[in-house]
Amino acid sequence: MQEPDPAAEFNVYGLEAIEQAHVFLSYAAMHWSDHSREAHTLIDDSLTGRIAFSMCDPHCAPFRLWSTIYSYLQPLFSGCLSEPKNLSNLSVSALLGIESAVKLLLEQSDVELAFGDAGGRTPLHLAVGFGRTAVARLLLERDGSLANIKGDIDDSSLHVAVRMNKPDIVQLLVESRDVDLNLRDYWGRTPLHYAAVQGHETIVRLLLKRQDLQIDPKDPREGTPLLRAANDGHETIVRLLLERGAQPDVEDIEGFTPIDRAELNGCLNVVRLLEERGVRVDENKVNEERHRWTEQRQYFESLESVVTMHSVSPGTSPNNIVELA
């Protein structure tokens, strides 16, 4: 006999009606994991772990009940919880940050540490992405090489931690000698590229602690972390990279150096800093690029005026707009 699905009622009455009629049920679904994380500091881990263990099992009725409500109220999590067949107990426990349940699962000989969800994300990816530092530590202590497993967009756990600006977790990963700092994602970028372009100074300092960090890796457009930081005016990061030995005169795919990019974007503090290193702006190349930008802006402004003047409909062919101009 098939087990009744406790979430089936939602399909009949609708989640919004259930939320209004059963306020406590909604609260419980949303916050049971928060209380579980707090409880493990007050009572025996084994007790909270066993309860959370069943709640995090994607193949059990309690999971279907709370996850249906949770995904409705927290759309951010809907993609993670909507396909139970692509989840494991460890994945859910890691995502929610329930340390006691993770400890119990790690005691099992058949636990799948590298199990990937629909997006190729392992339990460590999920713990890192949702800022579950304690769980990330447990998983790394079990097997540091888990951090080098890539998701569907070829991102390692370190890529995720850097992009999400999680310095505490980045420190955990950097301190694990099994973690490869120089892996590239789908777009050919290393974690240092992301830290530099996003201006995460604390994370850059953490990455620089490792001597095996490649300081001048090039992305597909041949941009180094130094060039990307200079382009966006992150002066302190530029200084840190230079002190570590980053090359200040490496050109990108268009032939621009870090100081050229800084000059183009008006990042004068960065320009002065790089000039102290003996590099100079290529005035001819920079002026040519500025002229090109001006021509492009004028062209699109003229198109906009033509569209406004002739009341061109949204479906008009671009070729016809050009003829009007």
Low-confidence stretches: 321-325
Number of helices: 20
Tell me the overall shape: globular
- The quaternary structure here is single chain
Strand content: under 5%
Structural class: mainly alpha
Radius of gyration: 26 Å
Average pLDDT level: 83
- What is the CA-CA span between the terminal residues? 72 Å
Number of strands: 0
Share of helix, binned: 55-70%
Along the chain, the helix and strand elements come as HHHHHHHHHHHHHHHHHHHH
What profile does the largest beta sheet have?
A: none
Describe the protein's topology.
Layout: H1 8-13, H2 15-21, H3 23-39, H4 45-55, H5 61-73, H6 75-81, H7 89-96, H8 99-106, H9 123-129, H10 133-142, H11 157-163, H12 167-175, H13 191-197, H14 201-208, H15 225-231, H16 235-243, H17 258-264, H18 268-275, H19 283-310, H20 318-324
Features:
325 residues; mainly alpha; 20 helices; 59% helix
Walk me through what this model shows.
The structure is a single chain. This protein has helices at 8-13, 15-21, 23-39, 45-55, 61-73, 75-81, 89-96, 99-106, 123-129, 133-142, 157-163, 167-175, 191-197, 201-208, 225-231, 235-243, 258-264, 268-275, 283-310, 318-324. It has 325 residues and is mainly alpha-helical. It is globular, with a radius of gyration of 26 Å. The protein starts with 7 loop residues before the first helix and ends with a helix. The relative contact order is 0.05.
